[in-house]
Amino acid sequence: MSDTTPQLPPPPRSSSPETHVIDYRAAEQLLAARDPRGAVKLLDSVIAAHPENTAARLLRARAFFAAAQLRPAELEFEIVLEREPDNAFAHFALARTHERAGRPDQARKHFRLAAALDPQPDYLAAARFEA
């Protein structure tokens, strides 16, 4: 005898701080595994529930960049910098986004800000202060 009971879809996941942390960590793993679109999907719900979460926005910006979605990446990096104007990594990543979009003057500005905020070798090399 076969069971003819229709299969029901799984119940919707409850949205709680714990599931948001799990989704954030899973998005980090997806980005590391080169699945930026999967990471963005997970982060959308995290950011919808916690729009003030700068770390989630920075991770989503990185995922957009990795997926070659430059305009959304740029917007997310700008939101991060509105909240944390001294975030050297966000300046550097925004500069890379501008560079990739063919806007070298805007890129140079953010490369230099990143290097001024955190004079690590990668930032200094990209800033090209001697040029």
Q: What does this entry look like structurally?
A:
The protein has 7 helices and no strands. The protein is mainly alpha-helical. Helix 1 (17-32) packs parallel to helix 3 (54-66).
Features:
131 residues, mainly alpha
Layout of helices and strands:
Blueprint: H1 17-32, H2 36-49, H3 54-66, H4 70-83, H5 88-100, H6 104-117, H7 121-127
Radius of gyration, in Å, reads 19 Å
Shape: elongated
Q: What is the first-to-last residue Cα distance?
A: 79 Å
Order of helices and strands: HHHHHHH
- Give average pLDDT, whole number: 91
Uncertain regions spanning at least 5 consecutive residues: none
Q: Main beta sheet, described?
A: none
Total strands: 0
| Content of β-strand | under 5%
What share of the residues lie within helices? Answer: 55-70%
**Tally of individual helices:** 7
**Helix-strand category:** mainly alpha
In a nutshell, what does this entry contain?
With 131 residues, the chain is mainly α. The chain has helices spanning 17-32, 36-49, 54-66, 70-83, 88-100, 104-117, 121-127.
